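Bug #77: duplicate submission created two jobs. Keeping one. Sequence:
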Amino acid sequence: MLDAVSSAMRTACPHGRLYVERFAVADRPAPAADEPFDAELTRTGAVVRVEPGHSLLDAIREVEPALDFSCADGICGSCETRVVSGTPDHRDSVLQEHERDRRDVIYPCVSRAHGRRIALDL
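Kept job's structure:
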């Protein structure tokens, strides 16, 4: 039913906001292979390396253990982080289809960076 309502929103109200509560990850196309990248935490100046197979959230929490998160599956949105520069590779189930090109937020529990570097407001 959630998928049907989400599909209807694309045509009925393409820029509207639909709030849903998911208890499992939505079906999404398989992401591209993980590439390593660096994440700069602009408030502290720290730079963390995110290797393939590791999450951005885990890398950040090594230097900022207080970063909020809950599900770690990209469905709750609690780890939303502001992007200062760089392009997020959105792999979450929080953003709606018309929001997937956003460059101002990232959900680091599942999302990665397009390119070699991303700067975050942390």
